[in-house]
Amino acid sequence: MPTAKPVVVYGASGCTGRLVCEDLREYGMAFIAAGRNADRLAVTGQRHTVGGT
Question: Mind spelling out the 3-state secondary structure of the chain?
């Protein structure tokens, strides 16, 4: 059952969270990255947005 609601990834600044974000991006699913380390979260966000490196 498809949904337009985004997935919230807690711990997205860690290793497993980054991998989950990568998989969600590959499947074209919307997600919100949440974590404790703002600097690492910013890097995760840059990597997993359209046009990111």
Answer: CCCCCCEEEECCCCHHHHHHHHHHHHCCCCEEEECCCHHHHHHHHHHCCCCCC
CA–CA separation, 28 and 38 (whole Å): 24
What type of residue sits at position 28?
Answer: G
Domain boundaries, the chain: 7-47
How far is residue 53's CA from residue 46's CA, in Å, rounded to a whole number? 7
Mean per-residue pLDDT for 35-45?
Answer: 83
Q: What is the pTM of this model?
A: 0.71
CA-CA distance, 11 to 23, in Å (whole number)?
Answer: 15
pLDDT in tens, 2-32: 667 899 999 998 999 989 989 998 998 988 8
